[in-house]
Design goal:
This protein is mainly α. The protein contains 8 helices and no strands. The protein has helices at 8-22, 29-47, 54-66, 72-77, 83-93, 106-123, 128-142, 144-147. The chain is elongated and about 50 Å long. The N and C termini lie far apart (51 Å).
Length: 149
């Protein structure tokens, strides 16, 4: 099972995402630690085949989707995405579907890929801070038209 293969830091991150999903974690540090241990115990029970509530399974799926290089569908089908595939999938999932209605046209798909490549090429710099600054500036430039409405 996927969860059994997580190392300690990945499991900690997974538990944090599960706790965040429930949004009812106690504020008190001691109570929060107790709550975290309860979540860990529930996860161990799930891994060992115990019956699990629907809300816990939903939280586990939501938490899996937040782990780098993972998503629920891939985990369920046994496929692991590279960090690049995961990043692109995450970015594409945030774009409203109305923008993809013409993507059945190969020319439009090709132009989209050229657009992404050109945008990255324009912004690229070996120095990470400059690359980030260029991306921010480029995005601000693209939003000029939108902000004038």
């Amino acid at each position: 099972m996927f969860l059994e293969k997580l190392d300690a830091s990945e499991m900690d991150r997974f538990v944090r995402h599960v706790i965040d999903h429930f949004k009812d974690a106690p504020e008190d540090v001691d109570e929060r630690n107790e709550y975290r241990e309860k979540i860990r115990k529930n996860i161990r029970n799930f891994i060992n085949g115990a019956n699990t509530s629907k809300s816990n399974i939903e939280a586990y799926f939501a938490a899996i989707d937040k782990l780098p290089g993972r998503d629920t569908i891939s985990v369920l089908s046994g496929i692991q995405l590279s960090w690049q595939e995961s990043m692109l999938k995450s970015a594409l999932n945030k774009i409203p579907s109305k923008y993809f209605k013409h993507f059945d046209d190969e020319n439009i798909r090709d132009e989209f890929i050229k657009f992404v490549r050109s945008s990255l090429s324009i912004c690229y710099d070996e120095r990470k801070t400059y690359f980030e600054k260029n991306l921010t500036t480029f995005n601000q430039f693209l939003e000029i038209k939108k902000s004038k409405k």
